[in-house]
């Protein structure tokens, strides 16, 4: 059971994030490169597919949140769905990065489209219940921060495995040669996807088997789609959060998604991305210390603002040092420190939004609100892919030419890698600063009300139990 201060329980919970991010990282960071350079799909098709898939996610993600909120299996409320989603997502990931039937033309486009949508659905099945467990462990904001930090640490480890080792592993698993060297091909992507899928299953199973759900709050009334959309529409802080988090996440995704193109096409050194990502992973680890250290001296709000500002400085530094690899890597380390801290804070903000929704609307809806996290990440990825595939299409990018692409294509990729992220981070920082109000005394009042609600519910439950015991007790002779 996840007890307050129980390190083993927190670590066991966090392990599950490694597997989820193996799949997540491979999909978001390298699927575009696989589709454009290996399967040679048209950019216009990908530009069309991504928004369509996200429209479906707009229905599917909250629907999954509703199912989790209202369901309860023998294993618990969340853990069964984590297992079901992880096994399903592993299968889809393997198929998505493979072409076992050697399809081409229209059948290949249809195959990719179906699996692309299926990946989002199966990822949702595992991701929403996993992160929805955070509020169920404790109502203490400080304890939630610790749990979220641990989970994000393992999440960063999963991302690190993908970002650091993919540029190294893919040539080793591939067979295609170009100019006397191995290049990324279908065999390499397929084999690497299988390995990552196996990791997803192993880590998720371990986490579920070692973690126990503690405080599960059942919804007081049956949720419908009408009520579900009402939650999002009437929770103003959820909507503000969705917007500023989507912008900042998209800024980060621009770097991770465009990186493979930048190092291959602009710099002509695909393996250089591994060192670049190594600095990023080091920054992600260091970023985990930002919140614990700064929270001793300042508020969570100031800490979050500092995180975004540091990311902004790092991205700006990458632009000015793009001709000096070592300096650019160090700047990416600084940006990654800010991003890692940002992600942790966003998870805690969602827990605060759950409490805010309870006070404002009179009921809790952890899974529905946390389902918005997965949805905003997908919307951020959609924004990134719209910019990416539009840039590739308009600049005349050719996936078969690699570093021999035109200067126009190289300039477009450089803009998406070095300028667009800073713009998105700046917009996010301004929106958070002027519109998000869950901080300070106002948040303290909300936490106090939620704590009082829990105490009242426990007292009422104890009273009912006592009354039931008196009613069934045998009459005295």
Strand content: under 5%
CATH C-level class: Mainly Alpha
Going by CATH, the architecture would be: Up-down Bundle
How can the largest sheet be summarized? 2 strands, antiparallel
Shape: globular
Distance between the termini: 44 Å
Helix content: over 70%
> Please, how many domains?
1
CATH superfamily (homologous) name: MFS general substrate transporter like domains
Instruction: Give the ordered list of helices and strands.
Output: HHHHHHEEHHHHHHHHHHH
Could you tell me the number of beta strands?
Answer: 2
* CATH third-level topology: Growth Hormone, Chain: A
Radius of gyration: 23 Å
Low-confidence stretches: 1-5
Spatial order of the strands forming the largest sheet: 1-2
Structural class: mainly alpha
Q: What is the number of helices?
A: 17
Compute the average pLDDT: 87
Short recap of the structure:
The chain is mostly helical and 477 residues long. It is built from 17 helices and 2 strands. The protein has one domain (13-211, 227-452): Growth Hormone, Chain: A (Up-down Bundle).
């Amino acid at each position: 059971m996840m007890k307050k201060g129980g390190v083993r329980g927190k670590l066991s919970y966090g392990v599950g994030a490694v597997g989820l991010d193996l799949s997540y990282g491979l999909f978001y960071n390298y699927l575009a490169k696989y589709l454009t350079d290996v399967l040679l799909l048209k950019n216009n098709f990908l530009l069309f597919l991504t928004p369509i898939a996200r429209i479906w996610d707009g229905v599917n993600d909250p629907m999954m949140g509703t199912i989790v909120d209202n369901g309860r299996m023998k294993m618990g409320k969340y853990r069964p769905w984590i297992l079901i989603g992880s096994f399903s997502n592993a299968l889809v990931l393997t198929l998505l990065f493979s072409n076992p039937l050697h399809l081409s033309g229209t059948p290949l486009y249809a195959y990719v489209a179906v699996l692309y949508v299926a990946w989002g659905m199966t990822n949702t099945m595992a991701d929403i219940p996993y992160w929805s467990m955070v509020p169920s462990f404790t109502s203490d904001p400080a304890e939630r921060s610790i749990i979220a930090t641990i989970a994000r640490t393992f999440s960063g480890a999963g991302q690190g495995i993908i970002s650091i080792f993919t540029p190294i592993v893919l040539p080793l698993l591939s067979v295609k040669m170009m100019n006397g060297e191995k290049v990324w091909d279908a065999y390499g992507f397929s084999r690497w996807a299988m390995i990552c899928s196996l990791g997803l299953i192993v880590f998720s199973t371990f986490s579920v088997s070692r973690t126990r759900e503690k405080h599960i709050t059942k919804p007081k009334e049956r949720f419908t789609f009408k009520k579900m959309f009402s939650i999002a529409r009437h929770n103003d802080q959820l909507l503000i959060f969705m917007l500023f988090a989507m912008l900042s996440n998209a800024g980060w995704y621009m770097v991770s998604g465009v990186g493979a193109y930048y190092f291959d096409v602009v710099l002509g050194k695909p393996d250089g991305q591994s060192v670049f990502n190594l600095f990023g992973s080091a920054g992600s680890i260091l970023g985990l210390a930002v919140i614990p250290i700064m929270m001793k001296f300042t508020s969570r709000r100031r800490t979050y603002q500092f995180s975004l500002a540091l990311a902004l400085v790092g991205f700006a530094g990458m632009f000015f040092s793009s001709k000096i690899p070592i300096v650019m890597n160090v700047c990416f380390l600084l940006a990654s420190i800010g991003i890692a801290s940002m992600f942790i804070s966003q998870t805690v903000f969602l827990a605060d939004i759950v409490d805010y929704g309870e006070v404002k609307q009179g009921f809790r809806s952890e899974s529905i609100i946390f389902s918005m996290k997965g949805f905003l990440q997908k919307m951020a990825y959609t924004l990134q892919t719209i910019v990416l595939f539009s840039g590739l299409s308009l600049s005349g990018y050719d996936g078969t030419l690699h570093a021999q692409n035109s200067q126009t294509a190289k300039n477009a990729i450089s803009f998406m890698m070095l300028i667009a992220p800073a713009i998105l981070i700046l917009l996010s920082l301004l929106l958070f600063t002027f519109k998000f109000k869950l901080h300070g005394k106002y948040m303290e009042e909300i936490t106090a009300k939620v704590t009082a609600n829990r105490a009242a519910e426990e007292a009422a439950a104890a009273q009912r139990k006592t009354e039931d015991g008196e009613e069934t007790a045998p009459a005295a002779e």
